[in-house]
Amino acid sequence: LLNRGGETSVSTHASPAAEALRRERSRAAAAALPPPQEGPQTDFYNSTADIVVYGGAAGGGKTFGLLLECARHRANPNFNFVIFRRTSPQITANGGLWDASQKLYPSIGARPNITNLTWRFPSGAKGKMAHLQHADTVHDWQGTEVPLICFDELTHFTEAQFFYLLSRNRSTSGIKPYVRATTNPKAGSWVKKFLAPWLDKNRLDKAAHGEVRWFTRINGEIVWVGEDWRDDEGLPGKSVTFIFSSVYDNKALLDVDPHYLVNLKSLPEVEQARLLRGDWDILEGAYFSEWSEAKHTKLPDKVPAWYRFFGGLDYGKAAPFCFLLMASDDAGNVIVLDEVYETRLTPSEQAIKVAQVLERHGIAPKSCPIYADPSIFPPQEAKARAGHPGKYIAEEYWDEGLNVIRANNDRINGWARFREYLHDPGAFTVFKGRCPNLIRTIGTVGPDPKDPEDVDTTSEDHGIDSARYALMGRPPRAKQPDRDPQFEIRHKGVKVIDPKRLPHALSDDRQEEYFG
Ligand SMILES: Nc1ncnc2c1ncn2[C@@H]1O[C@H](COP(=O)(O)OP(=O)(O)O)[C@@H](O)[C@H]1O
Ligand SMILES: [Mg+2]
Fold first, then answer.
1. Which end of the chain is less crowded, N or C, counting CB atoms within 10 A of the terminal residue's CB?
2. Within 6 Å (CB) of ligand 1, which residues are found?
3. Which of 33, 62, 91, 253 is the pocket-test mutation for ligand 1 (most atoms within 8 Å of CB)?
4. Which atom of ligand 1 lies at the shortest distance from residue 58's CA?
5. Which atom of ligand 1 lies nearest, measured to the CA of 100?
6. 178, β-bridge pairs
């Protein structure tokens, strides 16, 4: 009576209908899917890295490759997969992900559940298509165990969503948990930054198509390590690779639909570069079109102590927290002097970093208003200052002696004000080398696809948010003092100039005024 592999033994009492169903199922289970196409799709299918990102232009066969991957372990009854798209309409739209799976999975005996967007394979293996519309939808996945997590169009998700779900990627099914993602190119996205070894043209140790690299996180930052690297528990880094593709790699599509290529070629230039040539550097309509690195940055310079100092602060824990230190001169022009841009610091650690920056610049914390992310403040500030129960993030800053003030968070007016500064020559300048993250991101954020007046909040917006908060604080004009007390000492009650404290910031004629 033992069933030693091969065909499942069947009860002789089964009804003809059940028998027919069984036969149909075992036929379907043995049926094959179309094979991956030669080239990138096969490279994607064959890679054994923990994370494989299948990128490049549109029509390359990426989504199709993802669906083939999800069916790979269909004979394992404990297997399950999930494919995420950012929004639910992206799953169910005509020709979308669900439609594509409908064309493939029934042929191998899988049964759909349209209401839940799930598939069940004959073995019992199953899978689901799900959206992550809101940043915190990820928490619905807490405690779940999914050996294969997929993201279709990775740049649509936030960095925090991706890395959170990576931590959910567990398995008792005997299959080593892994992640697969597809993505069209998008300059300025966190995906480009994460996959810099493959996508950053200026990188010295560039990785090739399909080459595996390993990363870990050290102090919250991604660090690329060698294959043999082990942490203090003897664990290796996570392996990653990137597969490039373009529509020319998808013969299956070009054979049946040559018009697809014609359509791509009729796109406007920027879209063509991204979607036809797979360009990761070209920006689709930068939101801050006024920004120019040449015009708006300069080498750090000494700043007179009489300038008015202020700051902007965007809170983040998993996402970077950003502090910008700024100064305004007597004409109201603003210079961004310094930045702190770090992930995974506690509020008190952040406050210490900010205080250190002020100290380095010789700025008294009280004299430097810091316009901060409204979400860090208690609802009733006055009460909190007087010992409100529960501690708000802002209080950690106050404890450190910092003058954090609830910023005006009117986005549309805030962006308009920021653009006004960028538009006006000399009104907004950033110190090169000191503020690499602000400079890197400011020109790369795009408009919100749903609201062109706003910025795309899925892009890296921490630097510009901080700048917006600071500028909405109406930076005061500095006033150049007649006699700069910093350079005067009193000798027996008489003011004299201390030549040892030669004021670096004094213009030539003012030096003359002092020293004759
Ligand atoms: N291995 C394959 N076998 C048959 N057809 C394929 C294969 N790979 C891709 N295709 C066809 O190419 C079309 C476009 O591929 P898709 O995966 O949607 O591209 P992308 O996601 O890169 O834009 C699919 O709808 C499918 O018809
Ligand atoms: Mg696709």
1. N
2. 34, 36-37, 41, 58-64, 100, 182, 250, 252-253
3. 253
4. 23
5. 25
6. 148
R_g of the chain computed on alpha carbons: 29
Give the distance (Å) from ligand 2 centre to CA of residue 246: 12
Look up residue 205 and give its two tokens: 């140790």
Q: Identify the CA nearest to 496 among candidates 485, 509, 505.
A: 485
**C-alpha of residue 55 to centroid of ligand 2, in Å:** 10
Q: What is the pLDDT of residues 425-463, one digit of tens each?
A: 899 999 999 999 999 899 888 888 788 889 988 888 999
Report the candidate in 426, 427, 440 with the shortest Cα–Cα distance to residue 187.
Answer: 440
Edge-first strand order for the sheet with 403-406 is 297-298, 428-431, 334-342, 321-328, 308-314, 369-372, 403-406
CA 89 to chain CA centroid, nearest Å: 22
53: which strand partners?
Answer: 181, 242
Q: Which ligand is nearest to the CA of 250?
A: 1
| Ligand 1, atom 17: closest residue by C-alpha | 61
Tell me: the pLDDT tens digits for 243-279? 999 899 999 999 999 889 998 888 877 788 888 888 8
